[in-house]
Amino acid sequence: MKVDTKCLHEGWKPKQGEPRQLPVYQSTTFKYDTSEYMGKLFDLEASGYFYTRLQNPTNDFVAEKICAMEGGVAAMLTSSGQAANFYAIFNICEAGDHFITSSAIYGGTYNLFNVTMRKMGIECTFVDQSLPEEELAKYFKPNTKAVFGETITNPTVTVFDFEKFARLAHSHGVPLIVDNTFATPVNCRPFEWGADIVTHSTTKYMDGQGVTVGGCIVDSGNFDWMAHKDKFPGLCTPDDSYHGITYAERFGKGAYITKATAQLMRDLGSIQSPQNAFYLNLGLETLSVRMERHCKNALKVAKYLKANSKIDWVHFADLEGDEYNDLAKKYMPNGTCGVLAFAVKGGRENSIKFMDSLNFISIATHVADAKSCLLHPASHTHRQLTDEQLREAGVAPDLIRLSVGIEDADDIIADIEQALANI
Ligand SMILES: *Cc1c(COP(=O)(O)O)cnc(C)c1O
After folding, report:
1. How many angstroms separate the CA atoms of 104 and 386, rounded?
2. Which of 91, 336, 337, 418 gives the lowest tally of CB atoms within 10 Å of its CB?
3. How far is CA 140 from CA 144, 147, 174, in A?
């Protein structure tokens, strides 16, 4: 099946007489007939559900769908994209470990890595992703355990060079973890380019209608943990909290997700509610048609902005001549996403005037939604930073992030045009 078909038919596959739509298993608990069987569940010797803090069937059907769309072997849902990125790293890094991340990443992830995980004793190095391979190789240390990046960055919309980073990660014996939120598996499947683990904030395009916060982690099953045993003791040596199970031996390609479920979900409990997983599944059903429309609309809007004399600059990788156009064509030939960045001439003052004059394009701390919305990081998400600090974070003070929705493109352009007329 092609990814468009998988959106509808992977995951829940009803048998004779079963509901056509995915059922919500609104239950914390699951019943068993013998205490012996229940014991086996706790020893991970038998598979089955016992408590929704660890796993729930509704969530697993949705995770299975996303897994199939990405071409992975195992997946899990989390309560948010933040939880997904935290678990993805924490599953293989502990106090004293180090990882490398592109500095061009979502602000929430930046804080998670730079502040909270540092407090836990996990260090990371932020790197400029455009540096040549030899330069990037210098940042690896003996305790480096992973490399992290985003397919398309939020909010600067740059494109990640998968092949370069996969070579770097693998030649140093560590996995490449990629946040594929903006492209979605409809437009990009990072496993085909060497990524080992993919994460998502399903809050964005996957849900698509601003209904639920959620996340997902998918494992390609391609990284050979046992070949780098010394680096990954959590997967390659016995887990005392599970009677000495060695995940990589017992679960093979499923080891990474099994460990994240059995240890991290058990102990930290960032499970997605089954009701939210149901809404997410509805979003996934229409993802491929929405992505097509988002990309088409965004390109039209980007071309309009590029040609407008009141606009200083436009970044959109699908735009001919954009700095990232070559990478976009290589990794996302059907289009990147509906998010673009641009600046109105005349600095912060004009940017604010422009935004306040819009009609249906709303100012929202949200992105990748069916309804067009926009945000000025310097006055909103990043308002505590000075212009200098903003530039250091790679966010121009005049950058406006526009998330182009699935309305008629001409209406979107008309709204922008009337707002520009006010400045
Ligand atoms: C929004 C976002 C996140 C965080 O996800 P939440 O669901 O808000 O926790 C992570 N990565 C990217 C690229 C995002 O856009």
Report:
1. 18
2. 418
3. 6, 9, 10
> DSSP 3-state assignment of 111?
helix
DSSP H helical segments within 218-286, as ranges?
Answer: 233-236, 247-251, 255-259, 266-268, 274-285
**213 CA to middle of ligand 1, Å?**
9
Give the distance (Å) from ligand 1 centre to CA of residue 82.
6
d(CA 408, CA 171): 47
Give the Cα separation of 167 and 165 in Å (integer).
Answer: 5
Q: Which domains does the chain have, with CATH numbers?
A: 3-282 (3.40.640.10), 288-420 (3.90.1150.10)
The answer to whether 212 and 276 are in contact (CB under 8 A) is: yes
Angle between helices 347-356 and 409-420 (to 10 degrees): 130
Three-state DSSP at 413 gives helix
* CA 201 – ligand 1 centroid, Å: 5
Torsion of CA 102, 104, 110, 115, to 10 degrees: 60
Using most ligand atoms within 8 A of CB, pick from 152, 154, 200 the residue to mutate for ligand 1: 154
Residue 12 Cα to ligand 1 midpoint, Å, equals 26
User: For tokens 């509805």, what's the residue?
Assistant: 282
Q: Taking a C-beta distance cutoff of 8 angstroms, is the pair 132, 157 a contact?
A: no
Provide the residue-wise pLDDT of the chain in tens; the chain has 423 residues: 999 999 999 999 999 999 999 999 999 999 999 999 988 888 888 888 989 999 999 999 999 999 999 999 999 999 999 999 999 999 999 999 999 999 989 989 999 999 999 999 999 999 999 999 999 999 999 999 999 999 999 888 999 999 999 999 999 999 999 999 999 999 999 999 999 999 999 999 999 999 999 999 999 999 999 999 999 999 999 998 888 999 999 999 999 999 999 999 999 999 999 999 999 999 999 999 999 999 999 999 999 999 999 999 999 999 999 999 999 999 999 999 999 999 999 988 898 899 999 999 999 888 999 999 999 888 877 777 777 777 766 778 889 999 999 999 999 999 999 999 998
pTM of the model as a whole: 0.96
Token pair 């109105």: residue = 344
